[in-house]
Design a protein that fits this description.
The strands form two sheets. Strands 2, 4, 5, 6, 9, 10 and 11 form a seven-stranded mixed beta sheet that branches. Strands 1-3-8-7 form a four-stranded antiparallel beta sheet, with no helix packed on it. The chain is mainly beta. It starts with a strand and ends with a strand. The protein has strands at 3-7, 10-13, 18-25, 33-39, 46-52, 58-60, 68-73, 78-83, 92-99, 112-113, 117-122.
Length: 123
């Protein structure tokens, strides 16, 4: 059973930066992709960034493109999301999710999810 554990959330002022981590374990075959989603209260969960684990190719939602960088450390089985120039609208619970053979589009059904980490950006 694949397990994902997020860390690195917290409170930050607008314009600041955060680095989130997602530790992936328990897989027999490396997931095809790992993605970050976020959900603000009363809003749907939206995809933020994803990375194809075999190639390291990233993809970013328009809302964070240019401000976010998703990377992976294969030796540590960890995926990172570095975000800068944070805005209050970046606040929410950030989840990482993995898709083991499957489509990596944000609208696809991701098989495995972490418990989430809260990010709060104050103005």
């Amino acid at each position: 059973q694949v397990q994902l554990v997020e860390s690195g959330g917290g409170s930050v002022q607008a314009g600041g930066s955060l680095k989130l981590s997602c530790a992936v374990s328990g897989y027999t075959s490396r997931p095809n992709c790992v993605a970050w989603f976020r959900q603000a209260p009363g809003k749907p969960r939206d995809g933020v960034a994803r990375i194809f684990t075999s190639s390291g190719n990233p993809y970013y939602a328009n809302s964070v493109r240019g401000r976010a960088t998703i990377t992976q450390n294969n030796a540590k089985d960890t995926v990172y999301l570095q975000m800068g120039s944070l805005k209050p609208e970046d606040s929410g619970v950030y989840y990482c999710a993995a898709n083991a053979p499957g489509n990596c589009n944000f609208g696809s059904v991701y098989d495995y999810w972490g418990q989430g980490t809260q990010v709060t950006v104050s103005s």
